[in-house]
Amino acid sequence: MSSFFAATAADLTTDRLILRSWTSHEVTAVLDGARPVHWAEDFPAEGDRVIAGLFAEHPAWLGEYGHRQVIERDGGLVVGSIGLFWPPLDGALEIGYGIVASRRGRGYAPEAARALTGFALTAPGVHTVHADVELSNPASIRVLEKAGFQRSHTGTEQNTARYRAAPPVRR
Question: How far apart are alpha carbons 170 and 122 in whole angstroms?
């Protein structure tokens, strides 16, 4: 792993990824158009720029249950982001994710989604993680299914569906 990232207790680590909270320096770099060397050439994507622009309005998104960068353990490159839209509403959190085009097709998004969802379900009062996805986006649907989400219903406009993950029911 690159010397840029020493894993900390706050990081979530999977076989191939580190999910690390954004720093204020990285948010500023995205907003200013800077290019740190530890970012993949096509990071940040448009969605990352949108999220970075919203951190000032939603400071909790920078907290423990907020948004994280997706970092390859081998090489230490930031290749995407994933996040929870904190705080929960009636015990449910929404998750969002994106992997840059150069790293898609490697299974990073479902791997990151599984890890962050498992972590989210340990938060006090959280019993469900959900994502709304456009039915015209089969890649995102596959990510959610591979991450263990189940389709719960189709949106009122019939072009979206909600997928949800919850801990197993204990009997």
Answer: 15
CB 65 within 8 A of CB 120: yes
pTM over 0.85: yes
Structure tokens at 6: 């020493």
pLDDT in the model for residue 158: 72
- Pair of tokens at residue 100: 């840059």
Strand arrangement of the beta sheet that strand 78-84 belongs to? 12-13, 17-21, 67-72, 78-84, 92-99, 128-134, 160-165, 150-154
CATH of 12-129, picked from 1.10.10.10, 3.40.630.30, 2.60.40.10, 3.40.50.2000, is 3.40.630.30
Residue 101 token pair: 């085009």
Q: Distance between CA 22 and CA 46 in Å, rounded?
A: 16
* Domain residue spans of the chain: 12-129
Cβ count within 10 A of residue 136 = 9
pLDDT, tens digit (0-9, with 9 covering 90-100), for 71-128: 999 999 999 999 999 999 999 999 999 999 999 999 999 999 999 999 999 999 999 9
